[in-house]
Design a protein that fits this description.
The complex is a heterodimer.
Chain A (H helix, E strand, L loop, with lengths): L3 E4 L2 E5 L4 E7 L6 E6 L6 E6 L5 E4 L2 E5 L5 E6 L8 E8 L6 E3 L3 E6 L1
Parallel strand pairs in A: 2-11
Antiparallel strand pairs in A: 1-3, 3-8, 4-5, 4-9, 6-7, 7-8, 9-10, 9-11
Chain B lengths: L3 E4 L2 E4 L5 E7 L5 E8 L3 E10 L2 E4 L6 E7 L2 E6 L8 E8 L10 E2 L3 E5 L1
The chains are: A mainly beta, B mainly beta.
Chain lengths: ~110, ~120
C-alpha cells in the first residue's frame, strides 16, 4: 500500500542551529502538504507544494518538492525556541479522497 | 483558526461502554474527517465524510462508526470502547470538491482514556 516515510523521528538542536526533516513517498505525488503541531496543540497547515522542483520560503522555513515528486524537505534556518513542535508531511491517498500523514519529526530546541 | 469545536475535550470511560465524540464546524465546509493520534503512529484517518449522510472508511476504522446528519456536525462513535482506543482524536475539515488536495483545518482535539 501507499506509504510515506518521514525522518528523523526526533531531532534536538541548540538554538541557532539549522534543522531539516525529510518526507519520502513510495509513489509519485500530485502535491504534498506540511503541518506543524505545537506541544499540546493541534496540527496547523504550513504550506502546499505542487510543482516538480518547487521551492517555497516562509521567513526561516524553506520547503522543497523533489524533481520526481516523490520526496520533500522542510529546512529551518537558525532555529528558535518558537520552532519547537512536531512537523508532519501529508500526501493524498491513491483515491484522492483523503490525506495520509507521515509520522512526524519532533523538534526540540534548547537555548 | 477555523471555526471547529470538539466535545468533550477530555473523557475517561470504562472498557465496554459506548462513547460519542462530536465535531462541530461553522465554516460550511463539505469535507470532515476524524483522525486518531498515537505516539509513534502520527495521525491516522478513521473515517471521513464528503457530504451529509455520505461517509467512508479510513485506515483504522474497525471499532468506530460515524454519522453526519447536518453539514456542521460529524459524530464519531465507539460502540464498545476498548483500551486500545485510548488516544487523542482530532476532527478536521476541508473546503471544496478537491477534497484531499485542500488544506485541512483541525479542531482542538479530544483526549480519550479507556480504563
Amino acid at each position: 500500500g501507499q506509504q510515506v516515510m518521514q525522518i528523523p523521528q526526533y531531532q534536538h538542536v541548540q538554538e541557532g542551529e539549522d534543522f531539516t526533516t525529510y518526507c519520502n513517498s513510495s509513489t509519485t505525488l500530485s502535491n504534498i502538504q506540511w503541518y506543524k503541531q505545537r506541544p499540546g496543540g493541534h496540527p496547523v497547515f504550513l504550506i502546499q507544494l505542487v510543482k516538480s522542483g518547487e521551492v517555497k520560503k516562509q521567513k526561516r522555513l524553506t520547503f522543497q518538492f523533489g524533481e520526481a515528486k516523490k520526496n520533500s524537505s522542510l529546512h529551518i534556518t537558525a532555529t528558535q525556541t518558537t520552532d519547537v513542535g512536531t512537523y508532519f508531511c501529508a500526501v493524498p491517498n491513491q483515491a484522492g479522497t483523503a490525506l495520509i500523514f507521515g509520522k512526524g519529526t519532533t523538534l526540540s530546541v534548547s537555548s | 483558526d477555523a471555526g471547529i469545536t470538539q466535545s468533550p475535550r477530555h473523557k475517561v470511560t470504562e472498557t465496554g461502554t459506548p462513547v460519542t465524540l462530536r465535531c462541530h464546524q461553522t465554516e460550511n465546509h463539505r469535507y470532515m474527517y476524524w483522525y486518531r493520534q498515537d505516539p509513534g503512529h502520527g495521525l491516522r484517518l478513521i473515517h471521513y465524510s464528503y457530504g451529509v449522510k455520505d461517509t467512508d472508511k479510513g485506515e483504522v476504522s474497525d471499532g468506530y462508526s460515524v454519522s453526519r446528519s447536518k453539514t456542521e456536525d460529524f459524530l464519531l462513535t465507539l460502540e464498545s470502547a476498548t483500551s486500545s482506543q485510548t488516544s487523542v482524536y482530532f476532527c478536521a475539515i476541508s473546503e471544496s470538491l478537491a477534497g484531499s488536495t485542500d488544506t485541512q483545518y483541525f479542531g482542538p482535539g479530544t483526549r480519550l482514556t479507556v480504563l
